Request: fold
Amino acid sequence: MDVREIIADPALSIEAKVILVTGEIGKQILEAEHEESRKQHFISVGDIEEMTTHELADLLSNVVLVLRRLPDVPMRQLQEGHP
Reply:
C-alpha cells in the first residue's frame, strides 16, 4: 500500500495511519540505505547512531511531512486509541 493510499483511506483510524505510514517510510529508508536488510520494517538505535546528521535530518523531515498530512489531533488521543 502506497503512503498516499494509506493517508487517503477513510476506513483506517488515525493510529493505524501513523503506524502504517511510519512503517512504510522506515521500510523505504532501510531498502535504500541497507540493501541486505530488506525484511526489516524498523530502524534500530544502532542504525540511527550510524547515520550522518544530514541522513537523520532527512529521516526526521519525512516524518514531519507525514504528520503534517494527518488530521491535527492531540497526541493524547493517538495514545489512548480513540478513532
